[in-house]
Structure formats: C-alpha cells, structure tokens
Amino acid sequence: MLKVFIPCFLAAVLASPLAVWAASAQQADLIVYGDYVLTMDEAQPQLRDGAVVVQGDQIVDVGPRARIDAGWRAVSTISGAGRVLMPGLVNGHTHSAMTLFRGMVDDLDLMTWLNQYVFPMEGRFVTPEFVRVGAQLACWEMIRGGTTTFVDMYFYPDEIATVVERCGLRAVVGAPHIDYPSPGFSGWDDSFAAADEFVQRWQGKHPRITPAFAPHAPYTVSPEHLQATVEKAAARGAPISMHLAEAPAERDYVMEQFGTTPVQHVAGLGMFNSPLIAAHMVQLDPRDIALTASAGVGAIHNPTSNMKLGAGIAPVSAMLAAGVNVGLGTDGAASNNDLDLWEEVRMAALLHKVASGDPTALPASQALAMATRLGAAAIHKEGEIGQLKAGMQADMIQLDVSQTHQLPLYDVQSHLVYVLDSDDVQTTIVAGEVLMQDRKVLTIDEQGLRANVTQISGRIHEALQAGQEDAL
Fold this sequence. Notes:
Layout: H1 2-14, H2 17-24, E1 26-38, E2 46-55, E3 58-64, H3 65-71, E4 72-78, E5 83-87, E6 89-94, H4 110-125, H5 128-145, E7 147-153, H6 157-167, E8 170-177, H7 188-202, E9 209-215, H8 223-236, E10 240-244, H9 248-258, H10 262-268, E11 276-280, H11 286-295, E12 298-301, H12 303-308, H13 316-322, E13 326-328, H14 341-356, H15 364-371, H16 373-378, E14 396-400, H17 412-418, E15 425-430, E16 433-437, E17 440-441, H18 446-471
Parallel strand pairs: 1-4, 1-5, 6-7, 7-8, 8-9, 10-11, 11-12, 12-13
Antiparallel strand pairs: 1-2, 2-3, 5-14, 14-15, 15-16, 16-17
Helix pairs in contact: 5-6, 5-18, 7-8, 14-15, 15-17
C-alpha cells in the first residue's frame, strides 16, 4: 500500500497549481517592484504596481506586477511598497575628487576661482591618494542620491576608474590634458601621452567603465592640441569630454584670439566629428545651437554651478527645441557644493521658468528626462541606460513616497521634481547589483572613508588658515 501511495502523492503535488506555476515560470536573478514604475520609455512611460525583472546585468522584462508574478520567479526580490521605481540618474559632468575641495572658497567668478585658488591648491594637494579618497567620497554621495552613471574629468584617472570598478557605479572616466603644468605633469606633451595610455589601458577592460579623452577647454588647450585630441580619439574609438562655452570670459577670449565663438571654434577643428560630451554650453548663439544639434553633440547643463559662478543661463529650451540631447550635471563639489543631481533637476525646471517668464518652460517630465533618458543620449549611451525596458542595463533606483510630508501624491513626475530629494532614495542598483538598500551603501566602507577625508581635509584647512594669516 505504501509503495502505491507515494507515487500517487507525488503525482498530486506535481499537478497542483503551485507546482505547475513553478515548472512554467521563467527564472531570473532579481525582481524589483514599485507601487509606481516610471520607465522613461516613451512606449510604456508609467505603470501602477509594476515590476522590473533582471537577469545578470540586463533588464529582461518590465510590466504589471500580476503579469510579472505569473511568469517569473527570482532568486531575490525587492519590495516596492510605498516606492517609485525608475532609472538611475545620469550625472553628465563632474570632477569627482574635488569633493575634498568642497566649500574651500566660494562666491567668486570662474576665472578668479580657477586661477587664484583651484589651480594653485590642486598643484599643492592633488596626489593619487587625494584622488582615490575624493573619488570614494563622490561615489558614496552619488550612490546615496540615486546617481548610477557619471562622466568624470580629473587627474590620476586610473585611481578614479579603480574606485568605480570597486564601488559598482558606471562611469565615463576622462583623462584630462592641458597646455600648462598640472598635477603629475609638466605640460601638454606628458599629459596628452598619459591620457592616451589611460584610454588604451581601460578600453574594453570593464563593462561599466568607458575611458575618454578630456581636454580641459578651448582657452587652456591650443587649436593644434585640440586637433591632436580629435585624431587620437578617432584612432582609439573613444569619446571626448570637455568644458565648452561656459562663461563670458571664455567667449571673449576665443572671440579675441580666433574671431569666432567657442562652439564654432572647436567645431572647425573637428571636435564635433567625435562623440563629444560638451559641459556647460552657456554662451551660445543660434548658429552654435544648430551646429550642436546637427552634429549630435551632447550638451550637459550644470545649473547650480553656472549660477554660483555667475556664468550665465544656458539656452536649454532652445537647445531642446532644436533637437539637442541635453543632460544634467552637478559639476565638481568645489563649485556646487554637492553632487546631488535631484537639486539640478529641480533647479533646471525652476531656472528656465524664471529666465523665460514662462511657467510652462521645462516641465517636470522634461527635467526628469534630462536626468535619465536624454542624459544617457547626451553621453552617447542611449542604447544602454536611461530607461527601464528589456535589453537595457539594469540600472535603477527606488524612492520612498510613503512618508507623511510627501502626501498626497497626484502626479508622480511632478512629485519627483518638486517634492522629493536625494534623502528619499532607498535603493540603488547598477548592472543588476544592489549598491544601496534601505539607505545603506553596501560597497564603500563609510567609517574608513570618513577617517581618510578628515585626514586630508585637515591639511587643506591648515593651508587655508595659513594663507589667511599671511594676508592679514
């Protein structure tokens, strides 16, 4: 009787609805839920009570919870109760290690700030250790704030790339080169050679790291050297990131020296034939905008930094209307003074309303697109990131919308821009790996980082005090 009972029992279990589901459901590594899923995919922009399915480092399905639960099972799941699930933010321009210069000197115009304070202090303090610690501090801050990809430009880029590799973020890491002495270099020749070596060393080495050439700006790099960058970048198949048309002083210098605008100057040198990420793009005329749009150059708007340095207001609405892919950036923490991209989203939405006198300018949906889908296109990664849809990289964040001060919620996109901020980010995921969960960063030792920051900043503080005493 026992021999007959066991096969019959197993047959009954295998025929149960649960067993049938388990046998038919597809296997995934991770399913992330959200009471609201903001995909930034124009074909399916928003879901109520949805989920994203992850296999390896890619998204394999996005849809309503009921359908996802019926068709998938996963090794791990993350609840979406009281949360918005959306793509991670894209910071299109920053100088990560400058977190260690945060608040060092403020309330100055760009050229005074650079020439009298930043450049001298960089020459005195920037070392591989400085860059490593500063980059760790930046990455910790960005993970906490929901930034999953950033475009960087700073010295000792190997240190930055190594920090990115270990902490789990995604980055375009630019190797700076400039015509003048800079940390570790005597001038153009050695800095340009080192940039080329960096690109070759990291190209294809890691799927989350894209090495890039980063000539500083048209007022610090000669035309001949900018052309050399274009040629080398084309030979290596690498992107270029640079400051462009940032401030009136740059516009005036380029006009005086070369008889044209900064944009038309570098376009004439071949820069616009490259996959170019142009940071700032404030001082533009209509022809500049048309050139930028036709060339597919990505423009990165840095509203807080531009306002703080008195650089002007970028013509973002005109660029968007012309078809330019405009992303958002924080710039470095020395001129912002943080890496909170949510501030840039809100600031952009508000700034262009007051600048134009039009309250309909740059609506919430467009500001969010600049931080996600458009930002990804601006850094030439629109096929990889910036949207939640099958085939894209699994870079996503969850934000809490359940707290009393966040109630009521009528429009998710409006809420994200005008109500929420970086403190509301609960979960950060890059390439399917959870970097932060329930506000706890999992990939960086916070206590060790704080100790290292305190040690380095103490030396900078002593130097600042000594300088102030000398001035008395």
